[in-house]
Structures are given as C-alpha cells and as structure tokens.
Request: fold
Amino acid sequence: MAVQRYQVDLDEMDLALRRLYGIVRRMDAAASKARYETGLARESLGTGFDEVYEFYAEQAAVKTHVEDVTTHLCAFAEELTRKLKWTRGAYEDAEY
Reply:
C-alpha cells in the first residue's frame, strides 16, 4: 500500500495570513470605535423626563455588549493568525 503525500501551497498560506492581518487591523479599529465613538452625551436627548434615563441605561448596555463582541472577535482573529503563522512555519521547516 502506497503512502499518500499531500503538498501545501505556502503562497496560499501567506495570502491567508495577509488577509487575517487585515481582519485584525479592522477589528482593532472596530473595537476602538465601539469603545470611544458610540456613547451619547447626557444632554443630547434632553432632560427632565424618566424615559431619557432608561434610554441612556439601555444604550450603555448595548455599548458594553458591542465592546465585548468586538474584543472577542479580535482575540479570535489574533489566535487564528498566530496558529496559521506557526503552521506555515512548520510546513516550511518540513520542506527543508
């Protein structure tokens, strides 16, 4: 029985790495926007009625959720990048 060998295209892995680096950069930018550019100023909707305080509380909860999601996705993309980089290095070392 013959052993079947597979060949890995390192150029495709390089392309995937470049794309992942781009995703990480964009996710960092999204996380920064979620943290610093999505808040409402307290006076932006007026004052003196109960609903405004409820609205601000809900907006803060959604803001926190968006921050958490972008942070999680950024960490996931960074982990994939690290693993793909390690895998690519292992395949390159195996060729020599």
Summary: The CA atoms of residues 8 and 91 lie 7 Å apart. Helices lie at 10-36, 50-95. DSSP finds two helices and no strands in the chain. Residues 50-95 form the longest helix (46 residues).
